[in-house]
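Blinded run. Sample ID left blank on purpose so nobody reads anything into the name before looking at the predicted structure. Input follows.
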Amino acid sequence: MDRASYLKKLRGKLYRLPAQELDAALAYYEEYFDEAGEENEQQVIQQLGSPSKVASQIMADFALKDFDATPASTKKNMTTIWLIILAILSAPLSLPILATAVALIISLGAVVFSFVIAIVATGLGIFFGGIVALISGFFVLTDHWPTALLFIGMGLIVTGSGVLLFPIITRFVKKIGLVCVEVLAGLFKKITKKRKGGL
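Blinded prediction complete.
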């Protein structure tokens, strides 16, 4: 493999990065090759490792840098999680380590997704349960007004509780996203350290 094919493969592995980041990464490695000189091309390629390894490190570094640099949002957390997952999966790992990483990611994702869905469903259940009780109270009003007042009062209390819980649930879901990003970043660092130690 020569310099041109190495950089071409690296560009292909980094296509998910923003254009500015992609250009900056490629410029850095072109300069690295220039400084080493044409006669040391193979030595540089050997020193850097495969384009997959370099690309996975660049993607993970970009995801973590972007995560630290910009304010937290659910969309940004999902993008960071996705980039770290792609970096882990594109890293040239041995099959057992890759299988372990994939199993951890899938199980963590399933647990977190189930937990978030349960919390959101509980909040929505409380809110809509209150609305149903409120509407039921108005239907019972002509038949038995004390029962109707009970239903209306309970409906207002439960609906109000659902409205009050909404910002708490939103904050909690965002916090779960942040924790997922940190866990995946730690997993990536552990995997790449094990890989470096094994070389």
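Unblinding after everyone has recorded impressions. Helices lie at 3-13, 19-36, 41-48, 51-69, 74-90, 95-140, 145-198.
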